[in-house]
Structure of Histidine--tRNA ligase:
Amino acid sequence: MAKKNKPFRPKARRPRGFEDRPSDVIRAESALIAKAFAVYDSFGFEPLQTPAFEYADALGKFLPDEDRPNVGVFALQDDDEQWLSLRYDLTAPLARFVAENYDALPKPYRRYQAGSVFRNEKPGPGRFREFTQCDADTVGAGSAVADAEMIMVAAEIARAAGLRDDQYAVRVNNRKLLDGILEASDVPNTEAGAVQRLQVLRAIDKLDRLGEEGVEALLGDGREDESGDYTEGAKLNSAGIKAVLGFTTASDANRETTIATLSGLVGSSDRGKQGVDELAEIDRLLTATGFGPERVSFDTSVVRGLGYYTGPVFELELLAEITDRKGRPVRIGSIGGGGRYDDLVSRFRGQPVPATGFSFGVSRFVSALERMEALQSEAQPPVLITVFDKSLLPEYFKLAAELRASGIRTEVFTGSGNVTKQMKYADRRGVKLAVLIGSEEAQAGQVTLKDLVLGAEMAKAIETNEEWKSARPAQQTVSRENAVAAIREMMADE
């Protein structure tokens, strides 16, 4: 007798590099985004939502290889055989939106946005293929004033997230300064020198991880890491390597001193002088608005690895000292950053369109706050109305509606099982307060309220009847008309 074919049952599994987000993570991330949005809004920015897909050619410098649009990004061909790609970040879609609606938008155009971005890269620890970014950008303002404002926004978001001023710092630099140094080192500021410049930027960006010796190797011929992988170097001459390394250590705790030092380093380079002048303008505005060096510093080791930045760049760094499970120190480092990018919108329009922005990774920021024990839990578990008698369901839902109208999160148990099973469910949900209404309570016009947290504590600590009687009761019966007020009072005592 032939065996019956078993029905196909797909294996429950999620793709590598993608995460399921449980409720506590969603709430923490949503709360952080709301706080960031409040800061953006207070500065006069407006919200925008762009689609997850863009035409691949619109990604421009974000696209690793235009001939292979599914490398680095997730791409597919539309029915008209045009390549579509999931957005790599939120900046390229903004550039496309501004170019497409340029004449109708006020200039400068100021927008903020949060949403998922996607990277078609090999996943690893802390490296995901989908994550959430939260951005603000100003398009159409070419002066350092707009950059100074973005730096202020970054510092204010750190405060809004609940951090003290000694727990974070915004570190600022200017790409034009490095351009000036490289010009003096015979690296042309042309398309031909773009690859070499990008190698220099990426080398400096590894300074905190590889140290001066490792960066020196990457600025020269190259470096072989512990696994045997070899990274090609920028091929600077010895004078160029010395100049770049000297530039990365030119910072001082005093912003004015740093500006004076940099003025001497850039020499006669016009681009370098522009960078110095822009930092001086940023310092003037930061000082006038109370953003002192303890919140915002000038740091020439900050370059940001992306090649499209054209002027001031900055990073929001968390300074708290934390340890892993084995007690070893863990450096959190940068959780966001930004800077000036004046060439992205001009790709579409063929004319200069200045822009500057700030972005942070939401999951990374939340994870850092949790490690720093600075994550503020704002969600209360619901009050649970247990079901003793299904004929009383209308009364249960009526009370639930009254509690919700009073601002109290409330759930009526909709599953199956007796009260013992419902209490186990409440324990798994972290419920602190349960409401019990049986037929006797209903007839008497009463409601029994059970403090599950206090009850569990009392059961552990109380040893005698006298102690039980003198303690605050974990369970009390109140009149139905006073139920909402009594529940609010009990919740306030938690």
User: Anything to note?
Assistant: DSSP finds 17 helices and 20 strands in the chain. The two ends are 66 Å apart (CA to CA).
